[in-house]
Each structure stands twice: as structure tokens, then as C-alpha cells.
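Support request, please re-run this one:
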Amino acid sequence: MLFRSRVLISQRHTQACRTLRSACLFICFSLFASLLTGAAAAAGTPSDGYLGELQRLAREKGLARARTWEVLLHYKPAGSGIKSLVDDPRFFNAPDGSRDPGAELNATLTAFFQDVVKEDEEHPRCRFIARYTWLREELAIDEQKLPKADCIKFEKALAAVNPRSVVLVFPNTLLNSPSSMFGHTLLRINTQYESDLLSHAVNYAAITGDTLGLFYAVKGIFGFYHGRYSNLPYYEKVREYSDLEHRDIWEYHLDLTPDEAYRVFLHIWEMKEFYANYYFFDQNCSFNLLFLIEAGRPSLRLTDEFYGKLHFWVIPVDTVRAVQKFGVVTKVTYRPSQGTKILRIASDMDDGLKGKAFAIVDRKLTPQSVLTEDLPVEKKRIVLDLAAELSQYRGALRMLERDQFQRQFLDVLSARSILGIPPTDPYPIATPTQPDQGHLSSRFRGGGGYRTGSWFTELEWRPAYHDITDLDEGYVRGAQINFMDMSFRYYFDEDKLRLHRWHVIDIVSLSPWNGIFKPISWKVNAGAEEMLLRDGKEHPVPRLNAGGGMSGSVGTTGRAYLLAEADLNASSRLEKDYALGFGGTAGLMTNLTTDWKVNLWAQGLFYGAGDEHRSVAAGLQQNLRFTTNTSLSLDAKREQTFNIYKTDIVLRGNWYY
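Re-run finished. Output below.
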């Protein structure tokens, strides 16, 4: 009996275990099936109701291949396929969304059905508002069948901006900033306000931190920085460019409709949290802004002007030209910088009147005392007007404490108000040539000439951008930026092709010293060029030349300049492998006629370290323009190095493209 009882208990225990195991298996199977169902829903299969219906409709309409989807995801050809230029993985809803537009579209639609989001995280319909708005229109999405999503942050931003139109803004060249030496571009989103200064500026820039020097250049060239879009009041950017940096601003008004401006804003909002790798030469501030304009009107193929073609760089002024090419610019507005205004006012004053204005801002003279001076009303006005502008300038640079600036500025305005407003503008500023109307950025030239003892022919290519012998219309006078300039010469007597010059970078800034602003003129040149050595022959020598000094205006178009220089040469052909010298360059550059520019210069360098010697030279450069993008140049130079004399004369035809 005991044995049979034990067997019965054992059988019942085994049956219970089997029952429990079956129940566990059933529960696990149910959970697994539920997970599979959820995964199928996440994948957006055709069998999961309204989502599947939308995905099937999107495939039927070919929306993944639509131009708008291409723009919103920043897709561009890559090898045999396609790839987004956005590098932030959070920008995509599908794991392979950066390369598969169809998968990304399906995953994006799936994300719109998401019920719950993390705390402080926007719903995908809000985060990807541009995509959602377009897909809602294309697929006639019934929002009643979607989970509730309150886009409070977006609605608040939209109400604040209320976009009505779009302006492409081009602040001029700033040579003292590596990231802005070619100029800059940003967008202005006009609002319902009358004042443009209350509009919103959209900027795209590299997040560089405090990186400087060589690492700054290397990281910028090879895409180690992240680029992001930012949005801020336009008056802040005007203050930065116009008041602090003395950069004239050009505003290109685009013919985008209010609805298209709204779509631009949608894409700005969608891109605000995501980054793309920033490359100084191509995927930079100017190139990425074009995506925003395309988002407003996808039929514009602005980015195609630069991507996938023989363009290894995108210069800001070239993006302005691209917008002009597509015919979407309705008008152009010139906004002179505060520095330009100050110089214009001062141009009508003698030294005595300027001295009074400076005495006011230096608090050596009260504004009210000018009212009692024995001066015509016009001269009193001009003194106080200059004092007001100078006070603003010093306040912007924080040369005055805030309270001190406000008191001083209000005192000047109070005195000025007593003199009334003249019937016409007393300081009209002539609008210069638009940046996009100057010569094109790249230059090819060919010609020939004579160098003591030999005739030669020469070919030269400069990718970018402008030198001081080029005609200045559309460019900053006295500014030179030559990048990767390369020249070859074929000497007939040697029957040999030689590298004559390769300038990796060649910058000259001849900002004039005047009674008001006192900038330092400077230059830097790095590369390699043929140099005359002790053996009486010319050899390519790596060279670094840099200097600083001052320049002044001569007439309306001229510059006289004097620069102290240091010059370093490095070559195994030198006796001690290097030569370090000091000296300087003096010159006079001016326009003899509207189309004829000359530069007369002389240079002396004395090498006291390494291979000791001296080099003196003088030359005359001339450039005669035929059309905006064609000219003829004639350069002559006489030099003495290692007590050997050489004369170099070359005639070239220039083609800017």
C-alpha cells in the first residue's frame, strides 16, 4: 500500500509538472507571438491596418523616389546608390535610412503611429514636422486615426516667427577669420514685422570649440567638426557683422511665396537638433543653406550646381550666383556697415571738425558745447553725427561701459535733435558692385615671356579666388586670397617643363590706415616656387613668407603700402639647408582707368641665418580688363640674388570661370 501510494503521488507530481510546463510554454508562445505582431507593426507590413494602407499607397506613388523626399533627407548620389549627407544617426528612423529612402519612408510612417515618447522628447510627428507635413498632404493622412501628438514647442516657435518670405544674406569678406575669409551666407526669415531687424536669421556653422591653429585647419578640411543650423534674431547678426566686424551686408530677396517660406521654416525646425560633418571646402555654411531653399521649392536644384560635379569647394559668393542663375532673386539690398557709414561722414570733414567729434567721445568736450560754437548748422550736425556713430561703435566693441555709453550716446542725440533733420540725406553712400557681379572665382591663364637667357610659355591655374591685381568690382579693395595657385613654365632652350610656382595659400590684406580706423595690413604666403640659388640656376624651394605693416588710400582707388617681412626658405640645395631673412616690401597699387589696374612694388630681403645672402627685386604688374571674366596681364620684374641679375617679363591672357 505504501509503495502504491508513493507511485500515485509520483504520477500526480509528474502530471502537475507537465501541466505547469505546458502552461509556461503557452504563455511564452503567446508573448513571442505578441512580440512578432509588434515587430510586424513596427516594420509596417501591408497587413497591419491603416499604417499598412499608407505604406502601400506611398509605394504605389513612388514617394521614396520623389524630389521632395530627396531634399528633406539630404540624399545625394554615392557610388552606385544614394546616401544622405546628414551624419547624425538620430536623423533616421530606419537603421539603414541614410542609404535606403524606401526603408526610411516606411519607418518614418511607422514612427508617426508611436503612442508614447520619452519624457521631454518630442513626438516624431513634431520632431520630423517637415516630413510629416509633406506625407500628410501626399497620402491624405487622416489624423483621427493617429495617436494624439501635441507639438507645443513647434507651435510656439511658428507663432513667434510667422514666416512670410526668405532672404539670402551675404556678409562680405573678413580676412582675419579663417572661416569667413571668403565671405559668408545665411538666411533671413522675414516675419509679419515691418522692421527687417526683427526677422530671424538662420545660420549653418561648424561647432569648433576653442580649437585653433594647425589643428583647426586640419579638422576643418577633413570633416572632424559637426555642422549645425541655428536660429537667432537678425539684429544680432547685423550687429556682429556690421558693427563689430565692419562687413558690408548684401541681402538677396527670394521670390518664395509665404507657403514656401513656411516649408523652409518646417525644415529648419526639423534640422535644429541634428548634425552633419562640416567640411570647409564643400559641405560648408553656404552649401547646406541651399537645402533649406530647396525645401521651400524642391524644383530648384541648387545643390546640384556643386555636388557631383568638378567642384572641390563651395565659395559663398558662388552660392549667391547659383540662386541668381535659377532666377529666384527679386531684388538686392545693400546694407553698409557702421564702419562704412563712419568713413562716409568723416570724408566731408576737415581735421578740426574730426577732432571735435573725437573730443566728444573722449569726454573732453560736451555735445551741448558744440551748439554754442561759431559754426554753420551743417558743420554742427556733421560733428554730432560722427560723434553719435563713433559712440555706437565704441559701445559695440565694449570700449565703453554700458552705463557710460548710454549716457554719452543720449547726450549726443539730445544735442543733435536741436539742430533738426536736413531735407535730404547729407551722407549718401553709393552702392558698390554686387559680390555676384564681379569676376568668377576660379582663374586659368596662359601666355609666355622672357627670363634672362630663355624664352618660355606658361600655364597657370588658380582654384580661388582673387588677388590685388584683379579688378576689384564685387570684391573688397586691397584684399587678396589665392588658394592652391599653381603655375608651370616650359623653357624652350632647356626643352623642359618646370613647376614655376605653387602657392598653397597667399593672403594679403591692405586695409587703409586713416584718421579713424587704424588696422594692421598683413600678408602670409606658403608654398613652393622657383628661386635663384648660388649655382646660378633656379630650383623649386619650399617657402614661407609673412609680414605686417600699414597701408593708406591714394585717391579713390589706390593703396600705398609698406610691410615688414620674414622669409624662410628650406631646401637641400641651400648650403645649410635653410635660409631665414628679414626685410620688407613697399608698393603702390591703383587703377589708371576703370579697366586698367597696376601695382608697382619693390622688395628687399636680407638672409642672416642659414645660407647668408640678400635678394632685392622690383616689378610692375598690370591687368587690362576686356570683359568681366577676361583680361590681359603684363608683368615685369628685375631681381638680384647671390649677386646674379635676372629679368622676367611675361604676358598672359586671363580667363575667370
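The two ends are 109 Å apart (CA to CA). The chain has a mean pLDDT of 88.
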